[in-house]
Amino acid sequence: MIVVWKGWGLLVVVITALIVVLTTVLFDKLGWSVAYGAALGMMFSAAAIWQAGNKFNSPLKNRVLLDQQTGAEVILKPDHSLFFIKMQYWAFIAGAIGLVMLVNLLAGRSS
């Protein structure tokens, strides 16, 4: 039997928001375009989400317990996900959004 341990999936939103805000503020302070800061912030947040997701959802954190009455093994697995998508896979979504933003900026199209 496998029991899933729910966890920190909402951390995806927090990581993305913090990094995007930090990069846009930094770009604004340096006098650079804030839109580029947001695009690069999305790409940086993708890297951070990937690292955090791989750490939190590591198979090394699985626990095997033994039910004394039935002798059945119970496996506790971490599942840090947001909307049924594991945390580390949100990195691809954030990176793609950042890449689309950057391509639009470089092509001269602004939203």
UniProtKB/TrEMBL annotation:
<feature type="transmembrane region" description="Helical">
    <location>
        <begin position="34"/>
        <end position="53"/>
    </location>
</feature>
<keyword id="KW-0472">Membrane</keyword>
<keyword id="KW-1133">Transmembrane helix</keyword>
<keyword id="KW-0812">Transmembrane</keyword>
<feature type="transmembrane region" description="Helical">
    <location>
        <begin position="6"/>
        <end position="27"/>
    </location>
</feature>
<protein>
    <submittedName>
        <fullName>Membrane protein</fullName>
    </submittedName>
</protein>
<feature type="transmembrane region" description="Helical">
    <location>
        <begin position="87"/>
        <end position="107"/>
    </location>
</feature>
